[in-house]
Write a structure and sequence with these properties.
255 residues; alpha/beta; 8 strands; 45% helix
Length: 255
């Protein structure tokens, strides 16, 4: 067997914006359904969603058959947790609350094998290597790992250029909700000052040569972020679609 190409990582270096959906239901059925729609990527949320190790595993299996790239957001930057998810076969990781270049450097080491990093090796018992059936997995695994760090505080924005400059960081994702709270506008990610900070951050990330990402809740936001150099956008979630569709159906008959 050949090591699967990380199509999401490749797409970040190509023209255009990649549109994706957040998965928080921890359901392989919902994940497979959404993967069949045609999104450029799906993100399994292990930070705020209901996902754990086993539910993430099941969702990856469900998504894989559709060919849609999967990203997994972890709960924290624990290198042991990172190792377990990489061994599961995750190729693209989003790590929340990355505030400094030093933290980004530790993450870059955690996702790579020695001598570039510290990731532990156990190919015979891991899905990532298809239990040693992928030829030279350990030799080539690093090439397909995509490390996305999340900048979502004032401190992170102050250190943004240094974070983006870290070798091994492929992308920086700007998190609007936590950033708004950090800026003193709790629950107001659309506040003009927050949006101005996001716009500048996207431009700075793009100028660094790394791929900028963030969320967009409207066609206007998509256009604005695209003009600022964004490469991938989360445009919704399975939970929001379910709530919105359910409410719309009820309102259509109940008034």
């Amino acid at each position: 067997m050949k090591l699967p190409e990380n199509r999401f990582k490749r797409a970040l270096s190509e023209d255009g914006v990649q549109f994706g959906l957040w998965l928080a239901l921890a359901s392989p059925v919902a994940a497979e359904l959404c993967a069949c729609v045609g999104f450029d990527w799906l993100l399994v949320d292990g930070e705020h969603g209901a996902d754990d190790f086993r539910s993430t595993y099941s969702q990856l299996q469900a998504i894989e058959g559709t060919g849609t790239p999967a990203i997994v957001r972890l709960a924290d930057d624990d290198p042991v947790r990172i190792k377990r998810y990489l061994d599961m076969g995750v190729q693209s990781l989003l790590i929340p609350m990355v505030d400094t270049a030093e933290q980004a450097e530790r993450l870059a080491a955690a996702v790579r094998y020695p001598p570039r990093g510290i990731r532990g090796l156990a190919t015979s018992i891991t899905r990532a290597s298809r239990w040693t059936q992928i030829e030279d997995y350990a030799r080539h695994a690093d090439e397909q790992i995509c490390l996305i760090v999340q900048a979502e505080t004032v401190t992170a924005l102050d250190n943004l250029k240094a974070i983006a400059a870290v070798d091994g960081v492929d992308s920086v994702f700007v998190g609007p909700s936590d950033l708004s709270a950090s800026m003193g506008y709790l629950g107001q990610p659309g506040h003009p000052e927050v949006q101005a900070a996001i716009a500048q951050a996207l431009r700075d990330i793009a100028a660094s040569g790394k791929a900028p990402g963030t969320l967009a809740g409207s066609p206007e936001a998509v256009r604005t972020h695209t003009a600022n150099g964004v490469k991938f956008l989360g445009i919704g979630s399975d939970t929001a679609l379910l709530v919105g569709g359910s409410r719309g159906l009820l309102n259509s008959v109940a008034g």
